[in-house]
Amino acid sequence: MPALLALIAVTAVWGVTFVQVKDAVAIYPLFAFLAVRFAIATATLAVPGASRVRGLGRNGMAAGAFLGLLLAAGYALQTAGLERTTVSSTGFITGMYVVLTPLIALLVLRSSIGLGVWAGVVLSTVGLALLSGIHSGSTLGDLLVLAGAAVYSLQIVLMERFAPRYDAIAFTLVEMAAAFVGLGAVALALGDLSVPRGWTVWGALLVTGIFASALAFLVQTWAQRRTSATRTALAFTMEPVWAALFGYTLDGDRLGVWGWGGCAAIMAGIVLAEPAAASTLARLVPRAGSSSTRRSPR
Question: What's the pTM?
Answer without folding.
Answer: 0.83
